[in-house]
Each structure stands twice: as structure tokens, then as C-alpha cells.
Amino acid sequence: MHFAVEQDDNVVIFTIREPRLDATIAGDVKAEFLILCQPDVEALIIDLTAVQACDSAGLSALLLAQRVMGESGAPVVLAGVQPAVLNLMKIIQHDRVYPMFDSVEDALADLQEE
């Protein structure tokens, strides 16, 4: 399986279990985001701890989640972003688009403070 889904109240935690978020899994990830990103979801945490590399298709999947969640004003939060993926996001300035945390636990704690 490419990913796992958990729910903590109205916060969905989507964990990618592949070392690459690329064209080989991006279609499945996008389809899952379209199912998960419902108006009653207060936030989507995407756990990228296992992801060591990302391509444009992977970035497109993340942007889809951002766009769909943005329609209801709910945040998309990234957790466990690895250095290579973070460097790519900084180059294309996606680090300004998503709140990022070291872990899912840190992301949940921040969301609960709001």
C-alpha cells in the first residue's frame, strides 16, 4: 500500500509510505485526496517522513490537496519533510504554501492550539 489514512477528530492524517512521491503513485494520491478532502475535515496533515524524493507529479498532488482544502478554508499541513524534498520546496517556494512540522505529533499539537 502506498499510503495510510487515520483520523483524529476532524483532522485527517495521510501518511505516504513510499520513498518517492512521483508519477508512479501521484494519481492514486490525488484520487485519495479528492475522497478525503471533505467540507467537514478541519485540517489535512500529510506525513512525508518516508518520502525521500518528489517530482512535479508529486508536487501537483500536494497542490491539489491544498486547492481542495482551501475551498473550505481548512489547512494542509506537512509533517516530516525530508531534506531533499524540503530543498525542492524551497527552490519553488512551496515552503511558503504549507505549514511544516517535524512530526505529525507536532502538527497535531499546533492545530489543537488554534
In words, what does this structure look like?
By secondary structure, the protein is of the alpha/beta class. It has a single domain (3-106), classed as STAS domain (Transcription Regulator spoIIAA, 2-Layer Sandwich). It has 4 helices and 7 strands. The strands form 2 sheets. A 5-stranded mixed beta sheet has the order 1-2-4-6-7. A two-stranded parallel sheet has the order 3-5. Helix 1 runs parallel beside helix 2. The longest helix has 15 residues, at 56-70. The model has no long low-confidence stretch (mean pLDDT 94).
Sequence-ordered SSE layout with sheet pairings:
Blueprint: E1 3-8, E2 11-16, E3 20-21, H1 23-36, E4 43-47, E5 53-54, H2 56-70, E6 76-79, H3 83-91, E7 100-101, H4 104-113
Parallel strand pairs: 2-4, 3-5, 4-6, 6-7
Antiparallel strand pairs: 1-2
Helix pairs in contact: 1-2
Report Rg. Answer: 13 Å
Query: What is the N-to-C succession of helices and strands?
Result: EEEHEEHEHEH
CATH architecture annotation name:
2-Layer Sandwich
Number of domains: 1
Query: Could you give a short account of the major beta sheet?
Result: 5 strands, mixed
> What is the percent of helical residues?
40-55%
CATH fold category name: Transcription Regulator spoIIAA
Question: What share of the residues does DSSP label as strand, in percent?
Answer: 15-25%
Low-confidence runs (pLDDT<50, min 5 residues)? none
Number of strands: 7
Number of DSSP helical runs: 4
Distance between the termini: 33 Å
Query: Any idea what the shape is?
Result: globular
Structural class: alpha/beta
For the largest sheet, list the strands in their spatial order: 1-2-4-6-7
Mean pLDDT value:
94
CATH class: Alpha Beta
